């Protein structure tokens, strides 16, 4: 059944074409069926993927006398090949094979990976495809070698599966079919291992995430949670499995609020935003939510992936940063930045309503004398007291701000005429002229006020 083909010619279409079961005898078909069953049983049982590859090699060697089987895999850069499984190959040979670079002269395995097709070499001692590693063939008596690419699920070549024989020969249809099945099963095994590793990593991320994660079915019923959810909410797995995802949300949100969220999830496949949550003790806290859909092969939503984190500390931090940027640290009044923001807003609002507003600029006279005579602590106390007196002279709708030093400003909203502003100015002058009792010291200041009317 073997065909003799000159070593320096390309293989015929008949040999390159995958072997058909109809080319095999009943006995050969039976052997292949048994071979498949033995290997697939190991795959299904979840045996170690390297053990499965070695088992494939040993079974192949049992079906082809005077030969050894080898699995070589490409590295991540697809530049070199290394032996992954070769239970019957001497260690010295394995060491010399490692680092093989795919190419036209890199033997059967190097060519199979380079050309990404089956390569059958009858004589390694004469075939030019073995030129760069011929000494290896001589040292280990490898006289012929047949290699088949091993492919990933996406069809990408990830290595080779080979039978090296200690006699000159070409594969029969039976041997070609064995190689095809062997390389296919090895590809499945490696792909399955890759998926296991990805699932393992995913499970570790799921369990060790600092964000609470829950998985809900298509009816929004919780089917799984991680440890972080228990830590954040206080709910145990037994208490939430089988319950609606709404078990953890605050009642401060309306039903329309959640309807909009789930409508967005349905339309776009995801949603994220701030939601007030409620823990097991009934305490409410702000949380940042992210909801994503998981679709089945039919395109219908199968699961919802919901993750959230408690953002209480973040909001407090953001509030502190915002206050530091917009409010005076000493008096608590709006600073220059906030003053200009409010002024722009109030001018637009007055224009829209057809009302007037006044802006007062206030300087404390003789403040430097108090500061120099009694010290900065007394000066600071005076500024804080002045801020209180100014605030007491205006309405809640007005703004009192400290621009810096002893400079203050006031925005008076909705005044009817200039006389209203003058009345408030007189009140301010009277208040600031009163004695400032600061610890054991008494201090006196006056004020200079400039006013502008905007209509």
**Count of domain modules:** 3
Enumerate the spans where pLDDT stays under 50 for 5 or more consecutive residues: 1-18
Going across the major beta sheet, what is the strand order?
A: 2-1-5-4-3
CATH C-level category of the largest domain: Alpha Beta
Q: Strand content of the residues, in percent?
A: 25-35%
N-C termini distance: 106 Å
CATH superfamily of the largest domain: GAF domain
Question: Key terms for this structure?
Answer:
Beta-Lactamase, Alpha-Beta Plaits, five-stranded antiparallel β-sheet, 3 domains, 43% helix, disordered N terminus, 16 strands
Can you describe what's shown?
The structure is a single chain. The protein has 455 residues and is an alpha+beta fold. The chain has helices at residues 13-16, 26-44, 49-63, 91-97, 107-115, 134-139, 173-208, 227-233, 237-240, 255-268, 312-326, 336-353, 367-374, 376-392, 418-433; strands at residues 67-74, 81-85, 119-121, 144-151, 157-165, 212-217, 222-225, 270-278, 284-295, 301-310, 356-365, 399-404, 407-415, 436-438, 441-443, 446-454. The chain has three domains: 13-198, 2-Layer Sandwich (Beta-Lactamase); 209-315, PAS domain (Beta-Lactamase), CATH 3.30.450.20; 327-454, Reverse transcriptase/Diguanylate cyclase domain (Alpha-Beta Plaits, 2-Layer Sandwich). The chain is built from 15 helices and 16 strands. Helix 2 runs parallel beside helix 7, helix 3 (49-63) runs antiparallel to helix 7 and helix 13 (367-374) runs antiparallel to helix 14 (376-392). The longest helix has 36 residues, at 173-208. It starts with 12 loop residues before the first helix and ends with a strand. Mean pLDDT is 88; it is low at 1-18.
